[in-house]
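so my prof wants the structure for this chain in the tokens format not the other one, which i didnt know existed until like an hour ago. anyway here's the sequence
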Amino acid sequence: MGWNCPVCNGLTPLNRRCPRCGSAMEDHGRISDLWADYSPYRPIDDMKRTDGLSDLHSHQCPHTLWCPHCGWSELHMVSEIPSGKSVHPGGGTPVFAPENRPS
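here's what i got, hopefully its the right format
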């Protein structure tokens, strides 16, 4: 089974307040995308094998957050969801699931 980050895939927003000043923080994406020119083009699980974090086995996506007000930055781990699982509060099956396609 595959795992997907709901923030990277635009399914849920990452709303976090700065612990230093309380301002809204900006999500600058996966930390591994910032390491080298071609990092965003490498397979995500391949990057997770070499990033030094426990994100591969814990199914988490490490995002870099930055506060434009005071300059605070931090790493925030986003819990990934199994591929095809709904992230909507009411549950349910997403419309893009193969079993929901019209015959």
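also thought this was worth mentioning. Residues 44-50 form the longest helix (7 residues).
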